[in-house]
Amino acid sequence: xxxxxxxxxxxLDGTVADFYGGLRPIAAEWLGKxxxxxxxxxxxxxxxxxxxxxxxxxxxxxxxxxxxxxxxLAPVPGAAPALRRLAYEHDVRIRVITHRLYIxxxxxxxxxxxxxxxxxxxxxxxxxxxxxDKGAVGADLYIEDGPPYLEALLKEQRRVIIFSNSTNRxxxxxxxxxxxxxxxxxxxxxxxxxxxxx
Length: 198
Description:
The chain is 40% helix and 12% strand. The protein is α/β, with parallel strands linked by helices.
């Protein structure tokens, strides 16, 4: 990286926003099931909820267009204050990198809901990037939870912290369970970066 500041590439869904927790009641409504019947421990693609391979896109469209999914998600505990400390106390440049432009023809809604959510929850960021190839944006360190994105970043030999959840436990690498741990890992990486760039 040629930035003058340390750049932290931060994923949103499953990392900063509780995506699975927010989607679960919407999926229960979509499927006509009681929310308690949908397990909290899921794998990527949500087969445990009975979501068919060809059904997820329509569920996602419904969640964003009819239930304002990206506007109503709860933040992952500790994420917002940790990111504020990193941005304001440590001068880390927060670069949000998300693949929320997943469903065609709802991009405006997805972007608007995302910006409103970030602002309402006090998430600091300098850059907001919507794309699948997260390594193309560039960052000194990434925090990510999604298996396909983790695999791509690791294959590109990017420095990445895995934000653990039930979808990514099989992926090897440096991982954290909480934002307290994530913050400590970022501060340690920042110190290494500063030592190299003095």
